[in-house]
What we know:
Blueprint: E1 8-13, E2 16-17, E3 24-29, E4 32-37, E5 46-54, E6 57-65, E7 85-88, E8 93-96, E9 101-108, E10 114-119, E11 122-123, E12 130-135, E13 138-143, E14 152-160, E15 163-174
Parallel strand pairs: 8-15
Antiparallel strand pairs: 1-2, 1-5, 3-4, 5-6, 7-9, 9-13, 10-11, 10-14, 12-13, 14-15
Amino acid sequence: LKGDPDPQVTWLKNGKTLRSSDVVDLKYRNGLATLNIAEVFPEDEGEYVCRASNSLGTVETKCKLTVTTLATTPLKPGEKDSAPRIVSHLKSDFVKDGDPIVLSVRIIGAQKFDVIWLHNNKEIKPSKDFQYTNTANIYKLNIAEIFPEDSGTYTCEAFNDQGESFSSCTLTVLVPNEQPKSPVFKTFPRS
């Protein structure tokens, strides 16, 4: 890219602005704009746009990414599976009382593994209110309706005989007309 003044570079996927993360690395140095996806999955398919703007105008270029999946090969006798790895993590948030909530992670690496979800270190049993779903490598906890007592730490744990991976976040349920309170000490250390 060339421009005077130097352009501001923005990347979009299917019309949505991308930001650098654990999954996507965006760089712009010495006139070269790059987007690097460390490990590509079917959900990465779409139209990618590189947009360069300065005070004199905007230019863009596009490309379409198509992902073809390879059939997974079964493990050979004596071959060990790898440990699962969470690569797209949970994010803490403030949520409204009564809203539906979806927590999701992306898990890679292992062919066979189990996934459980925890609330304040207690396993959440799947039910009509708390449903486990997965599509491709995306594992979700769907909470039909969240209540103040659902505030706390949520953890996704993926594990097999080779190892485990965790991701945690804190959800704080806000009740309308109730002001959030800053933390206070209930007791103080004694000298």
